[in-house]
């Protein structure tokens, strides 16, 4: 399933235009601790987090994360979105909590 | 995918890290990762190296006033060295413990300083040496061999 398809199915807001919409998503990881993400996120995994500062983009880039998913319609700064686009990372946002989003994404990926 | 780089000249990459320069820490890990991918190293070895560089560089950015990350690529291994000027580490054994952290509340709120950095580095290194002087600074040397080494049970 691609980033774009996932966003479409779950009604997630896409904040970075067409960045990475065609990239494949195979798994996901939910964590707000950067060392945990660095050590444990899988390949082609979306990252669900409430962290929204530019430094998390360094982690996402390093782990080649196709998309970061922000829960609960949390506010984002323009600088964050701009930097994400520059670094080729999609930013999606949903109204559900991190728990609910993780479950929904898990189900979608299981279904294929 | 290769276990050694028979025809590759030795490569040294250097990065300067300033106080609270968190983005550069990620950048230097990404840069080295890209170089190693071009050299055709195995994906799991590259992953371990990237984790070490990121965590070591983050430690410099979080705890020191300034520092350098030097990455030296040899035909059969890579060494990662960080040297910083800063507070130093009082008790290295305690600092190695997962979950132990001296990071400030502000740093932790950003998702850093969870006390996992040094244990992540240890898990990814084949060889790790840390020397520190309180009030002066810390030097870390980590080595990763391209050919998978037998892993001790505690890693």
Q: Which secondary-structure class do the elements of chain A indicate?
A: alpha/beta
- Which superfamily, in CATH terms, is the homologous superfamily of chain A? HprK N-terminal domain-like
The percent of residues in helical segments of chain B reads: 25-40%
Order of helices and strands of chain B: EHHEEHHHEE
How many angstroms does the end-to-end distance of chain A come to?
Answer: 6 Å
Total E-strand runs of chain A: 5
The helix content of chain A is 40-55%
Count of folded domains of chain B: 1
Helices of chain A, by number, come to 5
Helical stretch tally of chain B:
5
Q: How far apart lie the N and C ends of chain B?
A: 25 Å
Describe, in short, the structure shown:
The complex is a heterodimer of chains A (112) and B (155). Chain A has 112 residues and is an alpha/beta fold. Helix content of chain A is 41%, strand content 16%.
Describe this structure in words.
The complex is a heterodimer of chains A (112) and B (155). Chain A is globular and about 35 Å long. Chain A has one domain: HprK N-terminal domain-like (Udp-n-acetylmuramoylalanyl-d-glutamate--2,6- Diaminopimelate Ligase, Chain: A, domain 1), CATH 3.40.1390. In chain A, strand 3, helix 3 (55-62) and strand 4 (67-70) form a beta-alpha-beta unit. By secondary structure, chain A is an alpha/beta fold. Chain A is built from 5 helices and 5 strands; from the N terminus they run αββαβαβαβα. Chain B has helices at residues 22-38, 43-63, 92-96, 105-109, 117-124, and strands at 11-18, 64-73, 77-86, 127-133, 137-145. A 5-stranded antiparallel beta sheet of chain B has the order 1-2-3-5-4, with helices on one face. The radius of gyration of chain B is 15 Å and the shape is globular. At the A-B interface, helix 2 and helix 3 of A face helix 1, helix 2 and helix 5 of B.
């Amino acid at each position: 399933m691609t980033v774009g398809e996932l966003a479409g199915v779950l009604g997630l807001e896409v904040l970075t235009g067409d960045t990475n919409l065609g990239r494949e998503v195979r798994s996901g990881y939910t964590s707000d601790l950067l060392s945990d993400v660095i050590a444990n996120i899988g390949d082609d995994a979306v990252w669900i987090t409430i962290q929204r500062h530019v430094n998390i983009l360094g982690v996402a880039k390093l782990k080649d994360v196709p998309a970061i998913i922000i829960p609960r319609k949390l506010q984002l700064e323009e600088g964050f979105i701009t930097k994400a686009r520059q670094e080729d990372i999609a930013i999606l946002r949903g109204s559900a909590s991190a728990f609910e989003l993780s479950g929904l994404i898990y189900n979608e990926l299981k279904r294929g | 995918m290769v276990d050694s780089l028979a025809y590759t000249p030795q490569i040294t990459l250097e990065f300067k890290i300033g106080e609270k320069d968190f983005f550069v820490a990620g950048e230097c890990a990404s840069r080295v990762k890209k170089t190693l991918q071009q050299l055709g190293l195995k994906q799991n070895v590259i992953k371990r190296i990237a984790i070490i560089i990121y965590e070591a560089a983050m430690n410099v950015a979080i705890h020191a006033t300034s520092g350098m990350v030097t990455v030296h690529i040899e035909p059969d291994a890579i060494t990662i060295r960080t040297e910083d000027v800063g507070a130093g580490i009082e008790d290295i054994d305690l600092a190695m413990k997962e979950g132990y952290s001296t990071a400030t509340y502000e740093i932790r709120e950003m998702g850093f300083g969870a006390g996992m950095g040094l244990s992540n580095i240890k898990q990814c290194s084949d060889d790790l040496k840390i020397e520190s002087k309180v009030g002066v600074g810390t030097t870390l040397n980590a080595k990763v061999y391209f050919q998978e080494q037998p892993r001790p049970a505690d890693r």
